[in-house]
Amino acid sequence: MVNIAVIGTGAFGVEHIKTIQSMNGAELFGICNRSEDRLLAVAQKYGIPTEKTYTDITELLKEEALDAVVIATDEKSHEPIAKEAVKFGKHVLIEKPVATDVETANHLLALSKRNEVVILPGHMLRFDPGYVAVKEKLANVSGQIHSLRLKRNVPVERFSLHARTHPVFMALSHDIDQLIWNTNSRPKRVFAMEKQIDKEIEMPGVFFGLIEMEDGMICSVETQWCLPNEYGQYIDVELEAMYEGGNLKYRFPGDTLSVMDNGHLARPDIQLTPIIHGNLYGALRNELEHFVDLIKDNNIKQVVPMEDAVLGIEICEALITSAREKREIVWENV
């Protein structure tokens, strides 16, 4: 049994908590959060004993029975917490984005190479059945991939909640990771544009980017944080590839399940973290089970190498720089 603690009890930290509680082969060792009120509220809701709650990260990491931690805190705290966890010999899963600058990402890469513990970037779409099917198909197409179009739009009500971080890191890091996963090429040129949609929020709410890869493939990325709330869905995602001899399209969520209830439309998640007979399944569980497998067997190949996470941060930085400075970024100069 692998004992895992979750550091950070925000919305996605709670998803990790619920998922670990549903898993076989893993035990929720405890939870940690700076706010004691929030910590105890989450503990009470999910049946976690008070003695398994921590406001001090070091106190948690000193526990000999603890094997691993999930870092689901704000992005700036990822590196210092990871360094502290590794110092105590704990395995680490870091939620995306692992960092918001290349220097910090490279520090995490160096940390992963210097130690025998697992450091897994939390890019859970690599564990989603839909995206795995996309990966398998694109890996076996008969001709060259001409283009890849990636869209991840978000309801406007979520914009202010996540505006601490640039939307390229908050949303498009998922899609940039898909770009990296589905091509053996590297970027050649980057150009992007952005638009502010709320005068009270510094971060842009609309962002479009173009990436030319070294093999000639053109990639477009889009995130708009102004999707009408009335659509009743958490996100609106599309991936489309054009290649010699064919075309591939993937949408999330699809039109599989929609519910109209008292004038409110909802499209419940049945893929990323669906609840089936009281237990959580889906992409997040698949990712956490892979994390457990890596801890148990160091011969297993890591699905998300830290090198890929660093490249993703480099692409994010290039896109943001291009939009802010209104110029093309040539990759040799990054």
Q: Could you explain the architecture of this structure?
A:
The structure is a single chain. The chain is globular. The chain has 2 domains: 2-122, Rossmann fold; 126-273 and 312-333, 2-Layer Sandwich (Dihydrodipicolinate Reductase, domain 2). Strand 5, helix 5 and strand 6 (119-122) form a beta-alpha-beta unit. The chain has helices at 11-22, 36-45, 57-61, 78-87, 102-114, 129-138, 159-162, 167-181, 283-296, 306-325; strands at residues 2-7, 26-32, 53-54, 68-71, 91-95, 119-122, 145-153, 187-195, 206-213, 218-224, 236-243, 246-252, 259-261, 264-266, 275-276, 279-280, 329-330. The chain is of the alpha/beta class and 334 residues long. The chain is built from 10 helices and 17 strands. The strands form 4 sheets. A 7-stranded mixed β-sheet has the order 12-11-7-10-9-8-17, with helices on one face. Strands 3-2-1-4-5-6 form a 6-stranded parallel β-sheet, with helices on both faces. The N and C termini lie far apart (44 Å).
